[in-house]
Amino acid sequence: MRINTLDDLQAVKAEGVKLTYPEKIKIMVGMATCGISAGGDKVYPALAKKIAELGLDVALEMTGCIGFCQREPLVDVVYPNRVRLTYQAMNVEKAEALVEAIKADQIYPENLLCRIDQEELLIDGKLKVYANPQPVKLSVEVPRYDEVPFFKKQVKIALRNCGYINPERIEESIGRGGYQALYKVLKEMTPKEVIALVKDSGLRGRGGGGFPTGLKWEFCHNNASDMKYVICNADEGDPGAFMDRGILEGDPHAVVEGMAIGAYAVGAKEGYVYCRAEYPLALKRLEKAIEQAESRGLLGDNIFGTDFSFRLKIREGAGAFVCGEETALIASIEGKVGEPRQRPPFPAQAGLWGKPTIINNVKTWSHVAPILARGAKWYKSFGTEKSPGTTVFALVGKVVDAGLVEIPLGTTLREMIFDIGGGIAGKKNFKAVQTGGPSGGCIPAQFLDTPVEYESLAALGSIMGSGGMIVMDERDCMVNVAKYFLDFTMEESCGKCTPCREGTVRLLEMLEGITKGVGTLEDIDFLIEMSETIKEASLCGLGQTAPNPVLTTIKYFRDEYEAHITQKKCPAKVCKELITFRVDDEKCNGCGRCRLVCPVEAVQGAKKELHKILQEKCIKCGTCFDRCKFDAIIVE
Questions:
Q1: Cα(255)–Cα(275) distance, rounded to whole angstroms?
Q2: Given the DSSP bridges, would you call strands 442-444 and 430-435 parallel, antiparallel or unpaired?
Q3: Which of 124, 347, 379, 524 has its CA 20 to 30 A from that of 212?
Q4: Are 486 and 412 in contact (CB under 8 A)?
Q5: What is the dihedral sign for C-alpha 235, 240, 241, 247?
Q6: Which of 406, 363, 410, 364 is nearest to 383 (CA)?
Q7: How many helices (H) and strands (E) does the chain have?
């Protein structure tokens, strides 16, 4: 059914509510990339088979990621009285036992993570009536969603539907408020009013330097042209980042609706989602979302019976990191080499095919509809004065609980890592956190109470970036970390401008020399000087931010650089050329485990006799250290 009127929209909304909150038990399996890789693709068919075997009248659905990737596979049971139980780390056997418990009208007691009252998680107030939980007597103690440390300080706006709807069913998106804002915009607001509201909300681009979204839209709106475009930058290439992927896999309609609103505001008729080909599931669900929106009349000609028409297409990127820069991205869509160009003119003046164009990333577009539905005042109730609202981070690295996290801007790094992330894994000591991906800076422990916002992070030499947050502990060598990220940005440089093309190579050469113990103290000052030159002279954001890991690690961990140079030692015992493995004579009992796993037979010794490592043969792979159960292998 094509949706033209408010009654049509409400009818589909009612249909979606029945699917989302059915009158019978519904089981949902997290089937985003993280859930599938953890075994969700085995749990789902096992549930289906068991349900059929027992003849249960139970709905079985897939959903996206609720964010707690560390605890996947996640399985949720939504009861008719609107209470939802979330189970963690499920497998086939436990999934079958869960179905048997449902058959027996019992609560399966194992692997319970939390109970969720849907009412608290809906952002559209009108939907609360459909999710008014009734008291349920549980035989086991189950914490509420807002009592679980990982979720407690989060506020879901961009991720509002991820893990709560079937992302391949548009009715469920509409059932939770989807496309309500688009209807309101097209029926009640002028383009200028939309832009004014977005400006008033203070929404800043959730990537790069955080340019005000409404201001960018206004520039494009004011540039007269026979054709304009809107683009979604889904070219997520940072190591350890999966924010865009999570949203596109869990709620692609959030992006589609946001882009349609943006197109109306600036006067565009066509849009493109530029997504890397390495995201096949995200692309599949996005393509399906576009098809469903077109079939319902929410994309295409005369949307909601108005004279506004908008078509959306997908362009797949080949994985070039530099295509995350907007002018390089535009060039790629046009079929050209993905290289940045000098600005001005800015894309809002002359972008895709020379026409005014606005580019925002997945997270930014996902914020648009809630802002239009709830208003600027509501949005500014989260975050800080200069950085309102929320943002999404991929919290990864040496934390206990990694995952996709959405927090109000202004939340401190300490809260992110120790409250939400559960602290450092293995009871190790925190050392640093890098924000902003390979172009970000490494922030040490003394700044853990820094609020996560654009200006605060920039003051420390880092950036907000697209939302990667990599946590490091005492086992990480900061010189090696800088080398790792420099190697990445050097490889991803398009080579167009000399400072980036040649400068990153020289930086990497010096870092490699230091990690091998052949660097000099003069190299440190030269690294700083060259880094500053590259930042100032590079053409685009890749080169301008590539030296950040070098500058911040020198600034905050200069002693590690000096130890590599003057002592020929790696304090974290990471750099191979500067470490030695040997056997502790007092702890070795001759069990032979280290000897059996050594790939080059560098460990010598008979069973139950003291072992020895032949230094001339040792390749310093660390296998013996990892395998020894008696702490008899020493790294020096």
A1: 12
A2: antiparallel
A3: 124
A4: no
A5: positive
A6: 410
A7: 24, 18
Alpha helices in 55-107 (DSSP H): 92-103
C-beta of residue 56 within 8 angstroms of C-beta of residue 102: yes
- Give whole-number Cα distances, 450 to 413, 417, 459, in Å: 6, 12, 10
Q: What is the pLDDT of residues 318-376, one digit of tens each?
A: 888 888 889 999 999 999 998 999 889 999 999 999 999 999 999 999 999 999 999 99
Q: Is residue 494 within 8 Å of residue 339, measured between CB atoms?
A: yes
pLDDT digits (tens, 9 = 90+) for 132-160: 455 556 677 888 888 999 999 999 999 99
Give the Å distances, CA to CA, from 619 to 315, 335, 599.
45, 46, 9
Banded model confidence at residue 418, pLDDT cuts 50, 70, 90: very high
State the pLDDT confidence band at 129, using cuts at 50, 70 and 90.
Answer: very low
Contact 314, 287 (CB under 8 A): yes
Comparing 251 with 122, which gets the higher pLDDT? Answer: 251
Question: Are 356 and 344 a contacting pair, CB within 8 Å?
Answer: no
CA 271/CA 268 separation, integer angstroms: 8
d(CA 148, CA 155): 13
Residue with tokens 């970000």: 440
The share of the chain scoring above pLDDT 90, in percent, equals 82
Q: Which of 205, 219, 171, 159 is nearest to 19 (CA)?
A: 171
Give the whole-angstrom CA distance, residue 636 versus residue 234. 44
Q: Which residue has the tokens 């996640």?
A: 74
Identity of the amino acid at 541 = G
Q: Are 570 and 478 in contact (CB under 8 A)?
A: no
Write the CA distances from 287 to 174, 603, 629, integer angstroms: 17, 55, 51
Residue 382 phi, psi dihedral angles, 5° rounding: -110, 155
Token pair 């108005």 is found at 306
Question: What's the token pair of residue 209?
Answer: 């330097």
d(CA 79, CA 566): 65
The answer to whether residues 159 and 247 touch, using CB atoms and an 8 Å cutoff, is yes
| DSSP at 591 | -
Lowest average pLDDT, out of 142-146, 188-192, 347-351, 477-481, goes to 142-146
